[in-house]
Every structure is written in C-alpha cells, then in structure tokens.
Write a structure and sequence with these properties.
The protein has a single domain, classed as VC0467-like, CATH 3.40.1740.10. The protein has 6 helices and 10 strands. By secondary structure, it is α+β, with helices and mostly antiparallel strands. Strands 1, 2, 3, 4, 5, 6, 7, 8, 9 and 10 form a 10-stranded mixed β-sheet that branches. About 25% of the residues lie in helices and about 35% in strands.
Length: about 180
C-alpha cells in the first residue's frame, strides 16, 4: 500500500473494508496537512439533484453525490472550470475545489458552466491530525493518482474498479474482486 497522502491524490478503500460510508469508495483528497485531512467521496451518487436540495438554485440537471459523513448539511463542489470560478483551488490536473458561490450561480445561469463541468457533494470525509496516516498504515486505504475522468467521464459505479486497476497489473486482480464476496 505504497504512497503518501497529499492533495490531488485519491484514497481508494481496500476491497474488504466493510464500513458502509466508505466501502468501495474513491476519495479525492482536497486538503492534507498537519491539522488533518479533508476529501470528497466521488463515486457515491445520490438519487437527488442540486435543484432538489437548494430551492433558489438555477435550473440545472446535476446529480448530487455523497461526499462523506462529516457536515452533511453542507454542499461542496469539484469542477473543471479552473480560473473562471474565482477562489477555486486546484487539486489536480483539470480538477478544482470550491470557489465563489455567487460566481458559480452566475456562470450556471449564463450557461457557461454545464452539468458535466461540476459535481456537487453533500458532506465530506474528514480526519484529525495523523488519523489518515494511521488508517493507511492499518491497510484501510490505498493511495492513487487523481484523474479528471473519474469525475467527468466514467460512470460513478465503475470508478472504484477503474481507479484501483489504474495502479497497475497487480492491482487489476484486486479491482476485479466482486462487490458481493458471495458471488465470487
């Protein structure tokens, strides 16, 4: 389970993780420092749209994803519009986190940002100082590279398998383990 957690990497849950929040999760790591870590689960789509959650949001056909169990009363967003959205932070090539909310609304209303340019999340995954490093040492997480394709191209239900498989030939066997072990 080589690798060091850092902004722009992914955390891939190991195949036998049973925690219902994180089973077969791919997490985009948005912050990692001496104070702790913050990430967004990018492959757990909910059966709601952003318009279902925010009443005065412009009409925008974008699903919302479960970002993690912390502060589920908040909305986070990842996008690929970079500098167009003031205040956004680059976390990897073609993936940006957050930005000025009023600017986001303006760009959506004017059809500059399309639903396939942004992904919304309810809540986030968070770790106290040193906690994530301990979980990695314990074998709960693998570190992977982030790809914008995980967010903007691949179907969410295939992202875990693709991200684990992208780690190399030895991991492709792990990626092919069925979700339900009784089916093996």
């Amino acid at each position: 389970m080589k690798g060091t957690p850092e902004v722009g990497k992914t955390l891939l849950s190991t195949p036998f993780m049973m925690d219902p929040y994180f089973r077969r999760s791919v997490i985009a790591l948005c912050e990692h420092n001496d104070e702790g870590s913050l990430g967004l689960i990018i492959n757990k789509r909910l059966d709601v749209t952003i318009n279902d959650l925010i009443e005065d949001f412009p009409e925008f056909n974008a699903h919302v994803y479960y970002g993690g169990p912390v502060q589920t009363d908040t909305i986070q967003y990842l996008h690929r519009v970079g500098g167009m959205l003031e205040g956004s932070r680059r976390i990897s090539q073609d993936v940006y986190w957050g930005g000025e909310y009023k600017s986001l609304l303006f760009l959506i209303k004017n059809k500059v940002i399309r639903p396939d340019d942004v992904r919304f999340f309810v809540g986030y995954a968070g770790w106290a100082a040193g906690q994530l490093d301990e979980e990695i040492k314990a074998g709960s997480w693998m570190i992977g590279d982030m790809s914008a394709n995980y967010l903007f191209k691949f179907a969410p239900e295939s992202v875990w398998e693709k991200a684990v498989g992208h780690k190399g030939p030895n991991y492709q066997v792990i990626a092919s383990i069925p979700n339900e072990m009784m089916l093996n």
